[in-house]
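Case study 2.
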Amino acid sequence: MSGVVYWLDMAGVIVFALSGVMLACRSRMDPIGMLVLAAVTSIGGGTLRDLVLGVKPVFWVTDPTYLWVILATVGVSLMGFHYIHRLSRGFLPIADAFGLALFTVIGAHKALLLGTSGMVAVLMGMMTGVAGGMIRDVLAQRVPMVLREEIYATAAMAGGIVYVALHALEAPLTLAIAVSLSVTLGLRLAAIHWHLALPVFAWVTVPAKTHDEAAAPLSTPQKAKERVRMIRRERKKH
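Prediction:
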């Protein structure tokens, strides 16, 4: 079964590397930028996980196959650049959802193998799933998906909890992996399709209108611009 987990990990690397390449294309980056985004997306979360768990050296140092898989993914993507460029914008979140589900299971599985508690394993699964995408989005100057309204980290947490619970019940590994993948992927895809989100708690301050703004009637765009200039001049005087 260790072979199944290993190939799932490789599949996650390919999917996340592809999502990094796609974002690099949309951000008009050169091949080096594509490689950097692909690498940080696919191995960034696992690297942070290993550092937190005290695993030395990290997984891709002991097994450089991960790096070769990233290079191969970027190389194939460059050859098929025109096809990737034509993919719809909805494909990136879907590819990211598959990577999130795969890496959540891998992170929780590795944490449990190292003897951590269930709570730590859930957190390591979530970290493995979301950290690489966060770094990718920051480098591309985008708001990370995990910080947006749609359910993202919650899906990873739910999948990690399911995996840890089934592991505690001594369920077969294939069943635990399949159910955890289904929960994470199902929640994330549902959030994308129906725009599901957690409630937002925030105070919104709406600036009060000035007397001139409140009293002024609707007018043409040219008159509106002139009114804005007059208001600014009045404010500067005060």
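The radius of gyration is 23 Å.
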